[in-house]
Structures are given as structure tokens and as C-alpha cells.
Amino acid sequence: MKRKLLILALLLIFCVGLLKLSQHVNLNPFRTVGESLDSFNGVEVYYNGAVNHVVKRNVSKDGYNLGLQYQCVEFVKRYYYEYLNHKMPDSYGHARDFFNYSIEDGKRNPRRNLVQYTNGSISKPKIHDILVFKASRYNSFGHVAIITKVTENTVAIIQQNAGPFGNTRVSYELIQENNHWKIIDSKIAGWLRKE
Prior knowledge:
single chain; alpha+beta; eight-stranded antiparallel beta sheet; 2 helices; two-stranded antiparallel sheet; 12 strands
């Protein structure tokens, strides 16, 4: 019995160690950090390797902080800066910081100078909206992506830093109940929009 418990404990330690290692080391031998993977409206999505890998801070030519290179926030802010000509008043923070839970649905988020909608909003998501994912046990920083397509029952996104084997494009089910739009994923806090 003691031997089985010891083996289980060692296996657990090994799995936790492998998970931590995978967050910092590129485990995909078919991709190179900085490699262009995709684009939307001419704004490139780059491969980051491990989700917690950081190369350097990316700053625009005019000094605006775009974020940590190849992270999800950097892509979203670069998209808004390059394609929508938008600079956020607060140019710092993790993905989870994009969504402010004290702001009512449809009201302006002053840190981002964008209108914020709660998942379960009266406003249907739109193309170019920033989709904000909550922090979780396995991702304490949260996640952000750009909405690329909206139909009556789906929302498609493009994202950067989805992990060594993750996809840049993902779709989610969208439903309307009681005149409110909800994306079916418990990790989604809501979306932000330039209006």
C-alpha cells in the first residue's frame, strides 16, 4: 500500500513538473518562436511557444506599449492600434485586467476606452470586439482574442499564444435567451468594443 502511494505521489509530482515546464519551454518542434501563423485584416498572429514565454516588450514607433511580445494581449492591442487606430488609456495589465466586473453591461470601460459587455449581454458580439476570458487555476493571467465572425449561433475568434499546439482560430456556440446574447463557455467574462 505504501509503495502504491509513493508511486502515485511521484507520478503527481512528475505531472505537475511537466505542466510547469510546458508553460515555459517550446514543446512543439515544428514551430519557431516569432513565426507568423495567421493574420486578420493584415495584423499578424505570431507563435509564442510556451504560454508563459516572454521575449521582450513590444512598443510602437510612437512609444505606445503594445504588450509583451507574442502574448495574447500584445496581439489584441496591436490589432486595435494598427487596424482600428485605437490606443488604450491604460496600456498595461494582463488579459484578465481588460474586463472590469464593476462596470455595467453596455457602459464604457475607462481603462480601455471601450464599451464593455457582459457575457449574457443585450448586445450581440460583433466583429473586431475583444473577447475576454477569465483567469483560471491553470491560467492566472486570463486570455483575450479578437472576434472575426458572428452568425446567429456562433462566434469565431483569432488568438495569439494559444499554447504550443493550440489553434489560432476557434469557434464558440452563441445563444440568445430572453433578449440576451451568451457565448457558451464559462471562461468568457465578456467583450469590449470600439464605438
